[in-house]
Amino acid sequence: MRYPDGGGCGPGGRLARERVRLEAAERFVRGEKTTDIAREFRVSVRRVEKWRRAWREGGVEALRSKGPASRERLSPQQWARVEAELKRGPLAHGFEEDQRWTLGRIKTLIGRLCHVGYTVPGVRKLLIRHGWTCQVPLRRAVERDEEAIEVWKDEVWPRVKAPRRTWAPISASRTSRGRA
After folding, report:
1. pLDDT tens digits, 109-142
2. CA distance linking residue 37 with residue 23, whole number of Å
3. How far apart are CA 58 and CA 80, in angstroms?
């Protein structure tokens, strides 16, 4: 099991990681080698050594999840308000350049609405914790006219596009030109 860089996983991710550690503890009891366990779970040998050390010192309880790495600073009501405003879009909050939520913009929005300061990486972790993912927007103009595009593709493009070259016997050699 590979862990994503940067952490910030939600409760489901923490439970999945905990299950891996607890299964590793069962293998420690059976006396399996660290390298075999690391290979099986697709983690580093050093990670398994750390788990084994914690298991020796504190037993299985030492491998259980200790909850989120940081306490969330937004209350459930504040998060609900932020989420509702995110769904309204950036334009509703004065970001007129484009229709994308960036982490910096979301940080500004949280500050304006809740008077709570977050760092940009903290905003990323907050969003991941609540099930939001990075999205790459389709770059389409608001004024886009699908019918006009289809007409252009069918009528104008065939006239503009250069005709394909016809087949003519040429040499396969890269150094000499073939005779036509």
Report:
1. 999 999 999 999 989 988 988 888 877 666 677 7
2. 10
3. 39
